[in-house]
């Protein structure tokens, strides 16, 4: 790092509990409907850009590069708020999502992924799958 | 692993993209209000238990043990649905949360963590921090 690059606020950086790759998880939620849109990953620089640009930037683990959502697809995420969780390893980013959040064209990355699960009965006990 | 332990459905296991520690991230959301409550971690066995017991079980990275939410605190999470994301590295678990989700006593683990962020202007352009 050089002095030319504006760093993430040191007070924020000190609160992050990064994984072995230097990343924290970012849960992204549509600010008004509450839909959970996707999960991405951020290092310090991706978080700095997200906090200062009004747009969400991730670190792509597969491509090993920064990725500002919507630059290619047009499916921009406008930042509404960012919160860090109690132990510093996850962010909740509330956004206004333009178009689909998922690269498949689905509104969210979880739309096609329902798993069969036993659900709680009305009395709170567990039920059958 | 022995044959005595019922394994995770192989069709589900085949879709998981685990990290180096064998884990996927689990975003936990209150099913009716849409609140994002917390982020936890699951290995195959934690997911199997979550899908079959009607209660959410995590793998604790710090304690290196399974942890069924609410067994100690009473703050039980009753499973309503579980979905896997498009690339298999994140789960969305919708629950009915009893009491506080956060060990601090806050309703969610993100309640105390707001970071200063530039937000989008109404016209969609980025604003000042």
Overview of the molecule:
Two copies of one chain form a homodimer. The radius of gyration of chain A is 17 Å and the shape is globular. The first copy, chain A, has two helices and seven strands, in the order αββαβββββ. With 129 residues, the first copy, chain A, is mainly β. In chain A, the strands form two sheets. The first copy, chain A, has a four-stranded mixed beta sheet with strand order 2-1-6-5, with helices on one face. Chain A has a two-stranded antiparallel ribbon with strand order 3-4. Chain A has helices at residues 10-13, 44-53, and strands spanning 24-30, 36-42, 57-60, 65-68, 77-84, 90-97, 114-115. In chain A, a hairpin with a 5-residue loop joins β5 (77-84) and β6 (90-97). The mean pLDDT of chain A is 90. Chain A has a single domain (1-129), classed as Ubiquitin-like (UB roll), CATH 3.10.20. Helix content of chain A is 11%, strand content 31%. The termini of chain A are far apart. Chains A and B meet through β1, β2, α2, β5 and β6 of A and β1, β2, α2, β5 and β6 of B.
Blueprint (SSEs and pairs):
2 copies of one chain form a homodimer.
Chain A: H1 10-13, E1 24-30, E2 36-42, H2 44-53, E3 57-60, E4 65-68, E5 77-84, E6 90-97, E7 114-115
Parallel strand pairs in A: 1-6
Antiparallel strand pairs in A: 1-2, 3-4, 5-6
């Amino acid at each position: 790092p050089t002095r030319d690059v504006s760093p993430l606020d040191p007070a924020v950086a000190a609160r992050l509990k990064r994984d072995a790759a230097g990343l924290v998880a970012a849960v992204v939620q549509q600010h008004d409907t509450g839909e959970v849109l996707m999960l991405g990953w951020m290092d310090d620089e991706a978080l700095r850009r997200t906090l200062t640009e009004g747009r969400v930037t991730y670190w792509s683990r597969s491509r090993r590069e920064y990725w500002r959502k919507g630059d290619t697809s047009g499916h921009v995420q406008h930042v509404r708020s960012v919160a860090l969780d109690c132990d510093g390893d996850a962010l909740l980013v509330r956004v206004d999502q333009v178009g689909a959040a998922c690269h498949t064209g689905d509104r969210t990355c979880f739309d096609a992924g329902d798993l069969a699960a036993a659900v709680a009965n009305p009395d709170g006990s567990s039920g059958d799958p």
